[in-house]
Amino acid sequence: MATALEAQLKGLPAKPGVYLFRDSAGKILYVGKAKTLRPRVRSYFQRSGDTRSGIARMVARIADLEVIVTGSEVEALHLEQNLVKRHRPPFNVRLRDDKSFPYIAVTVEEDYPRVMFTRERHRRGVVYFGPYANAKKVRETLDVLNRVFRFRPCEGPKPGRHSGIPCLDFHIDRCYAPCVKYISKEEYRKVIEGVIEFLSGESRPIIAELERRMRNAAAHEHFEEAARFRNRLFSVRHLAERQAADKRAVGTVDVLGIAIEGNRAAVQIFPLRDGRMVDRYGFHLENVQDRDVESVLEAFCVEYYSSAPSVPPQIIVPRGAVNTTALAGFLSERRGSQVSVRPAERGEKRRLQELADQNAHLALEADTARSESSRLRRVEALEELREVLNLESLPLRIECFDVSNIQEESPVSAMVVFQDGVPKKAHYRKFGIRKIDGQDDYAALAEAVSRRFARVGTGTEADHDEGFASAPNLVVIDGGKGQLSAAIQAMQAYDLPRVAVISLAKRVEEVFVPDRPDPIRLERHSPGLQLLQRVRDEAHRFALGFHRQRRESRARESIFDTLAGVGPARRRALIRHFGSAERFLAASQEELEGVPGIPARTARAIYAQLHKAGRA
After folding, report:
1. CA dist 377 to 105, 244, 275, 303, 395, Å?
2. In the chain, which stretches have pLDDT less than 50?
3. Can you list the domains of the chain with their CATH numbers?
4. Which of 29, 198, 233, 515 is the most exposed place for a label (fewest CB within 10 A)?
5. Rounded to the nearest 5 degrees, what angle is found at the Cα of 368, between the Cα atoms of 366 and 370?
6. Could you give the C-alpha distances from 608 to 565, 588, 591, 612, 613, in angstroms and in order?
7. 498-513, pLDDT tens digit by residue?
């Protein structure tokens, strides 16, 4: 042990707090919390201390430690959660959401929030409900909710279309048309609060409100309106009853089941609201090797409930979790009232907890089998590509390039990376094409490839990009012989290690390789071809998404956004002074020079840009 580290261990305080272990490069390896820092931290470095194999590997890399004293163990738990989220240490337990599970997402931080289907669960400012059992169920739920609550179904952070006219959804009572201000932000926010309340398991207020509106419409002889409320009422009742397993004696509670095997764990949650089981949620965790149920439970609950829409007053946990005082205190602060975290000894709650444990074991077995099958399939695919393409080694790192544009508008290119046969999204890169005139896919592809390989192994910190640092084993180009030739010519300008280059043509899935006139045709269901197709399709999806993003941002530009020398402050001054784009365009140079906050030189430059009169 280093002398400096030994001195730090001797000076540790005997108080609650958080400790951070760092390696020689200063990178955080692990973040933990302790009721008493001195004995807990010192136990890692004692022969009779923590004997877990993963901990032994971690201790060998520790070069420095840092402690933060807190007022209580609950405060330490809060701080530990924040530090783990910020730094994502490699030796901490990680919650791995199964991306095959669909969610309902509510974008609560937008002016007019959306309620939408998604398979992600990590964006800030979004409340997620789920995961649900299957995508069809989520889409049916969204359809019913949209008929009842009439939230906007349009995509994008801003509602509506550029035309400023309500779309068909407004005319068929599927939207309140916030795009044309037919509903205020405050009223629309109440609609979204109703959606969140219903998805959280509380359907009684919505049912009571619909019944009141139906009776009120019928009393005033507005029978068509009453019929619409009646149909919405039936839909809500059906949606609530379809998920209901009636156990009123249980109350509002989350029942947790945990299964641990090796380095992985599975957690199943049975959420009951007023005795009704509203769904079943499943999660997987990593880095849990040799951990007990109590530590896995704490790590999971801290991360899951910190982003959950609500915390129930009671959480039933496995019987192996005994010391849950700090966790209960953390969740009580999150809820704003007392939360009980305890095992169930008897009755219906114990039966549900045992059922949750069974489901967790089944989920873990299925996930393990699925992962092993997927791993073997990837190995088979990589071996096949090495043999068929005559590669020197397995193509462990595959990079694929694609170009996307519509005629001459917003040409872009994208690069996706597959490492060991799976996407490595942290290394995906986008390229806005700069140096071509007109539509030239070959030149656009060559520019993207050239910009990528110009960055291989760049050593300066300012220029270093992890996604570009290492060369791939195989480069895949989306296209035919022409695209392949353009990519090879761009790569020849650089002193690269041996990198294999191929192209994959969409029409009949032909693989073109350099110096070979005839394409290679792989079997339709071969693992190698299916891997190449996944790589190519992912590159196409990524490039197309970037192109749409660029096109939409340009479509939203006004005349004020295109003027050189006009930033946000001057743009506001122009809009405030003229009131509309029409008056601004019709203004004379003298009128522009009279705008408060716009220097005379800038006003002359603006006039020159508008009237193409040369430079001011």
Report:
1. 33, 40, 44, 32, 14
2. 98-99, 243-247, 613-616
3. 3-92 (3.40.1440.10), 253-366 (3.30.420.10), 397-554 (3.30.420.340), 559-611 (1.10.150.20)
4. 515
5. 65
6. 12, 11, 13, 5, 5
7. 889 999 987 778 899 9
